[in-house]
Amino acid sequence: MKNNLLLVLASCFLVACSVSAPALTVNIVATSVIVNGVANTPTAQAPMQAAAPQPTLSLVTVTAVQALNLRAAAGIHAHILDQLPSGTSLVVVGNCQYQDGGWWVNVMAGKIDGWVNQAYISAEVCQ
Predict the structure, then answer these.
(1) Does the structure show a pLDDT above 90 at 2?
(2) Each residue's pLDDT tens digit, 12-33
(3) Which of 32, 57, 64, 108 has the smallest number of Cβ neighbours within 10 A?
(4) What is the pLDDT of residues 66-78, one digit of tens each?
């Protein structure tokens, strides 16, 4: 029960909501927490980060006019592992990451695991 209550509380953070459990009533409004009528206002908060979107497709193709760089990490400065010609099939294997002004997708090109910029593949994987 306690774990479920914590999960609900975590999902209520920054949104006004109420949660009740036997002998416990919790109200969350903005960043103040009221437990059984006693206000608890945190003094410092960790910065909130948007969760990276989960890939919605598992197979895409390269649509770049010229070769698309397969990189070791997300971002334009990461080491280039291979150059993939247009039409190359890629399997999406991991999450998306926003880097250098665009979404990067973790893919497998043959036996090579790497990252490509979403702008140069056949579908919007990161939504």
Answers:
(1) no
(2) 443 444 444 455 454 544 444 5
(3) 32
(4) 899 999 999 999 9
- Name residues whose C-beta falls within 8 Å of residue 110's C-beta, 6 or more positions apart in sequence: none
Which has more pLDDT, 99 or 16? 99
Look at residue 125 and tell me if it is in a domain. Answer: no
Among 49, 48, 5, 51, residue whose Cα is nearest residue 28: 5
How many domains does the structure of the chain reveal?
2
Residue type, 46: A
31 neighbors 45 (Cβ within 8 angstroms): yes
Amino acid at 95: N
Where in the sequence is the domain holding 94, given as residue range(s)?
Answer: 59-120
Q: What beta strand segments (E) does 1-127 contain?
A: 17-21, 24-29, 32-35, 38-40, 59-61, 68-71, 80-84, 89-99, 102-109, 112-117
Tokens of 91: 């399997």
Strand order in the sheet with 17-21: 17-21, 24-29, 32-35, 38-40
